[in-house]
Specification:
The complex is a heterodimer of chains A (437) and B (178). Chain A is of the alpha+beta class. Chain A folds into 3 domains: 2-73, Thrombin, subunit H, CATH 2.40.10.170; 77-183, Up-down Bundle (Methane Monooxygenase Hydroxylase, Chain G, domain 1), CATH 1.20.58; 261-273 and 303-436, no CATH class. In chain A, 39% of the residues lie in helices and 12% in strands. Chain A contains 15 helices and 12 strands. In chain A, strands 1, 4, 5, 6, 7 and 8 form a 6-stranded antiparallel β-sheet that branches. In chain A, strand 4 (21-24) and strand 5 (28-40) form a beta hairpin. In chain A, helix 3 (113-128) packs across helix 4 and helix 4 packs across helix 5. Chain A is globular and about 60 Å long. With 178 residues, chain B is an alpha/beta fold. Chain B has one domain (2-177): Collagenase (Catalytic Domain), CATH 3.40.390.10. Chain B has helices at 12-26, 52-58, 117-132, 151-155, 163-177, and strands at 2-6, 30-35, 50-51, 70-75, 79-80, 93-95, 101-105. In chain B, a hairpin with a 5-residue loop joins strand 6 and strand 7. In chain B, helix 1 (12-26) packs across helix 3 (117-132). The chains are: A alpha+beta (437), B alpha/beta (178). At the A-B interface, helix 1, helix 4, helix 5 and strand 10 of A face helix 1, helix 4 and helix 5 of B.
């Protein structure tokens, strides 16, 4: 093994030297410690050795591949200033087509340099304000943040903690935060500002979505609705050219219905509620009250008791799948849609009488579902956040007209019909007895 | 083990609450270690608040840290941090990323629009302890790793971690223990 650690040895395109602090997109901030010749499988390889700063681990890269892996010098202060200008600028862009987003983000992370990383972070941050990120993208978001924090700290010689706080002063501005004399809009828990541009484009096939962990990608109708409202003419062309929505029986139809106008407040509330069970799962030894998300109790399967429950079996228990449940409300635009026990649920655990956008619908859902859902989701809270309907007769319990499941029952199999009828009778009977009293 | 050291006087129930919440959030033992003095050398130029990185570096305490131990200092003093590219902003603590020491303050808690001292301090402590395991800020408003100045901090005072942050912290804790 021959070691060259002279300062004159140039690496990559000639801009890197031994002793330089560099950014390795897969590893973080490193320092070039030397160039070694190693014999591997009978061949001599010139390897650039790097020392990772966060844990002093040694990384070796073939010298010929240095340019291809995106190794670059740590940015200077001027570049970091530009980064913060970009982060603090308005007009967050959320690319909603997962395939385009995945390709763009991968390119940016490996070959986009500092500003590529910033774009990835900002794009995913904008998306996260519309709906929870899938696991893979959540990891990408974390990697981008890790790289950026390390580089900002290295470039400006401030602690990592201060660098991350500054990063979020730009992304989530506190009250009174300014950037070059301009007061930034303080962070809010509501939907992104109206100036946000949301890119919408359509993919051809979605088969590979689940492989990449984007299986909840289609459950973002509410987000697409925001995109439609955001007003980007080119992007909304795709939406306007869609055929009229079919009756709400398939997720695709539901998706298109939602495109035509779920209010922004609804979508954000649904997003918040959807990711709620992701939180608060206390560890076994913990004694954290009111934070345990319990798995739903096994209930006898009753499809009729699941008004418009399109969620997959795990949806009620696993947080990642919740966007689907959250997307469901926006999917049912018609009043009383909940009264049609659409038997899409594959499992009783998904028995979530989700709210349905318009007044009366939420109450109908209550009337239809005789069994109190044992799922982790909070249907009442969701219904409350979606709409505040005027009290209907069904809600008061005088009668239950919305419980007649005629139209949807035609599409169902015989056993499901029976279950639906049984489910519809129970609340109606209860309502009658109350009325007598 | 998470060791808690107070730099000011706190009611015992507040410190116990913080310990319980840290234990619940990270699944590690949390122990009230004792008290330490605030180093005067860590006061900032205005002499009214403490420079958080300096404070963590200059605290003189006898706490022994073993392999995977973390230490959290609790104070009620206002904190500042060095100016970054965005200037000065709100500071509710400090942590040595990937290191062993963190600091959280109760300053500003209990006021209008803020959670109670015990709830807020527990969440801040959990946040800065998380940085010791390389957790970054989280966009989920209910997560303890969400930035402390966000409106979500007051709205969701429970000390909980989102699924991603919880799994990441578990991995880091296992690595530390291994």
């Amino acid at each position: 093994m021959v070691t060259k650690s002279a300062q004159e040895v140039s690496i990559g395109d000639g801009s890197l030297h031994v002793g330089d602090r560099v950014v390795y997109p897969n590893q973080g901030i490193c320092r070039i410690t030397g160039v070694e010749t190693k014999q591997i499988a009978g061949h001599d390889w010139e390897m650039v050795t790097l020392s990772r700063e966060e844990d002093s681990a040694t990384v070796m890269v073939p010298r010929a591949k240095v340019a291809g892996i995106g190794l670059r010098k740590v940015a200077d202060v001027a570049a970091v200033e530009e980064v913060f200008d970009q982060l603090a600028a308005d007009g967050e862009q959320a690319q909603l087509d997962w395939k385009v987003r995945h390709r763009e983000n991968a390119d940016r992370m490996h070959g986009g340099g500092l500003f590529g990383t910033v774009e990835v972070l900002k794009g995913l941050h904008a998306l996260s304000r519309i709906r929870p990120l899938p696991q893979k993208e959540r990891e990408l978001y974390d990697n981008a943040r890790h790289l950026l924090v390390g580089e900002i700290a290295a470039a400006t010689s401030i602690p990592l903690h201060v660098a991350e706080d500054n990063l979020d002063y730009a992304l989530w501005p506190p009250v009174g935060m300014k950037r070059k004399g301009r007061t930034l809009t303080p962070a809010s828990l509501g939907p992104p500002p109206a100036t946000a541009v949301i890119k919408v484009s359509r993919g051809d096939d979605d088969d590979a979505a689940e492989d990449l962990g984007f299986d909840d990608e289609q459950a973002a109708p509410a987000a697409k609705a925001q995109g439609a409202e955001a007003g980007d003419a080119d992007d909304t062309d795709d939406i306007e050219n869609l055929p009229p929505p079919p009756p709400a029986k398939k997720p695709a139809g539901a998706f298109r219905t939602a495109l035509r106008g779920a209010p922004a407040a609804l979508t954000h509330a649904a997003h918040l509620e959807a990711s709620k069970p992701a939180m608060g799962v206390a560890r076994p030894p913990a004694a954290a009250p009111s934070t345990t998300a319990t798995a739903p109790a096994p209930v006898k399967p009753s499809h009729a008791a699941t008004p418009a429950a399109h969620a997959k079996p795990a949806a009620a228990a696993t947080p990642a799948a919740h966007p689907k449940a959250a997307a469901a409300p926006a999917a049912h635009g018609k009043p009383g849609a909940a009264a049609t026990p659409v038997a899409h649920a594959k499992h009783p655990a998904a028995a979530t009488p989700v709210a349905h956008g318009k007044p009366g619908a939420a109450h109908s859902a209550k009337a239809v579902a005789p069994a109190k859902p044992a799922s982790a989701a909070k249907p009442k809270a969701l219904a409350k956040s979606v709409a505040k309907p005027a009290p209907t007769s069904a809600a008061k319990g005088k009668s239950a007209p919305a419980t007649k499941p005629k139209p949807a029952a035609k599409r169902e199999s015989a056993p499901v019909k029976k279950a639906a009828a049984a489910a519809a009778k129970k609340p109606a009977a209860k309502a009658k007895s109350k009325g007598k009293k | 083990m998470i060791r808690i050291v107070t730099l000011n006087e706190f009611p015992p129930e507040v410190v116990e609450h913080v310990a319980r919440r840290l234990h619940a959030a990270y699944g590690m033992g949390a122990e009230i270690e004792g008290e330490a003095d605030l180093p005067r050398s860590a006061l900032d130029d205005s002499q009214e608040s403490y420079d958080a990185p300096k404070l963590v570096a200059n605290i003189d305490d006898d706490t022994q840290l073993f392999a995977d131990d973390k230490i959290i200092y609790l104070t009620s003093e206002p904190l500042t941090a060095p100016a970054g590219p965005m200037g000065h902003g709100p500071v509710d603590g400090f942590a040595q990323y990937g290191g062993g020491k963190a600091l959280a303050t109760s300053h500003g808690l209990g006021q209008k629009g803020q959670p109670s001292i015990e709830a807020g301090l527990a969440k801040r402590a959990a946040h800065h302890i998380g940085h010791l395991w390389d957790l970054h800020h989280c966009f989920d408003v209910r997560c303890a790793m969400h930035p402390g100045w966000s409106p979500g901090f007051a709205q969701y005072p429970e000390v909980v971690l989102c699924l991603f942050c919880r799994e990441k912290s578990e991995r880091k804790i296992k690595l530390g223990q291994g």
